[in-house]
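Quick one:
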Amino acid sequence: MLKILVISLISINICAQEYPFVYEVDFTNKNDAFNVTLIVPQLSEKDDVYSFVSYAPGVHQPLDFGRFVKMFKVFDEAGNELLTNKISTNDFKILDPTIVSKIIYEIDDSFDMSTRYHPIYPMSGTGINDDYIILNTHGVFGYFKNLKNKPVKLKLKLEGTQKIGTALNMDDNGYYEIESYYHLTDSPILIGNKLSCASTTIDKIQVEAYVHSPSGEITAQMVLDQASDILNAAENYIGYSPVDRYTFLMFFA
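Output:
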């Protein structure tokens, strides 16, 4: 059976601003999990629960990604581990949030999980493989309820020269600049050694495609060729360029 994961996304321009949350995902640690480090700003006493996604927009099923977390630790600025309690499937309570400096956790990819209860379908899931990584960001990154509008930076630590498909914009230091947690979870990422890439321009919009196809039979240029009529029709209908970039991410298995 042919399975297709199709993700389309747009880039958003971000004004210069402070980035209080800094995520790093380390893929060089070969433990078949997303290894996440989060540097946080000064938290208040109210910011005592770190949550993973239960539901995502457009996905009409429970996701409960917190069930895939297999390690969760919190540290102060001096490197001392702080007390935490897992209070529900998706929520970790931090007993003294005002001195938190860093959070690290490991979360399994959903493609490896045999979950009969609330199964996660491929288009909503996450996957780590030798040839590809599917990073549906809502399945990896958590949040503090009252701080979801704060800007974010994200860095991906990879081995070799893997290609990265995303509409996120990178700064000069290798960090993706993201305006909020909502923007982060609306920005999936496709990574791979064999990604096919192609781009074109529709009016003033740069349109990109990144495709993973095991056999190589389906290419990014084929995707853009198939999409060209509807993209041009959309440009003619709208009459202006609402975004500066539009990106297709497609995974065929």
